């Protein structure tokens, strides 16, 4: 399973049950960052250092985006693990606080 395969499975089987705005956000992250990353590589063989280098590259442009992307990526891979599509990834060794910068409190616009 490549990262693209995992993202496609997540987008087909999990994302449609979410709110429309969340679906749009997840599709945008998938299209802009996840699909096409690590092409042809088994997601279970991507080393921690490779994940961090990739996330650090994104962090150069936008630390908040890198942090948010990490969260969505982890959700995607955890979903695939819960469905026994993949067994494990080195992404689990990375902590969220080490990726980019979390958004400040009060910067998100509430949606009702």
Question: What can you tell me about this protein's structure?
Answer:
The protein is mostly helical. It has helices spanning 3-13, 20-34, 48-61, 63-82.
Helix residue percentage? 40-55%
Mean pLDDT equals 89
Helix run count? 4
Indicate the structural class: mainly alpha
Rg, alpha carbons: 14 Å
Order of helices and strands: HHHH
Distance between the termini: 37 Å
Low-confidence stretches: none
Main β-sheet description: none
Number of strands: 0
Write the layout of secondary structure elements.
Blueprint lengths: L2 H11 L6 H15 L13 H14 L1 H20 L30
Helix pairs in contact: 1-2, 1-4, 3-4
Give a short synopsis of this structure.
The protein has four helices and no strands. It has helices at 3-13, 20-34, 48-61, 63-82.
Task: Looking at this protein, list some descriptive labels.
112 residues; mainly alpha; 4 helices; 54% helix
């Amino acid at each position: 399973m490549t990262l693209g395969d995992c993202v496609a499975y997540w987008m087909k089987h999990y994302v449609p049950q979410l709110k429309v705005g969340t679906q749009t956000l997840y599709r945008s992250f998938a299209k802009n960052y996840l699909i096409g990353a690590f092409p042809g590589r088994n997601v279970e063989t991507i080393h921690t250092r490779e994940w961090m280098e990739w996330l650090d590259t994104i962090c150069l442009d936008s630390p908040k985006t890198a942090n948010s992307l990490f969260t969505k990526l982890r959700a995607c891979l955890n979903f695939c693990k819960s469905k026994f599509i993949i067994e494990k990834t080195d992404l689990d060794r990375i902590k969220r606080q080490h990726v980019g910068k979390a958004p400040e409190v009060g910067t998100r616009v509430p949606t009702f």
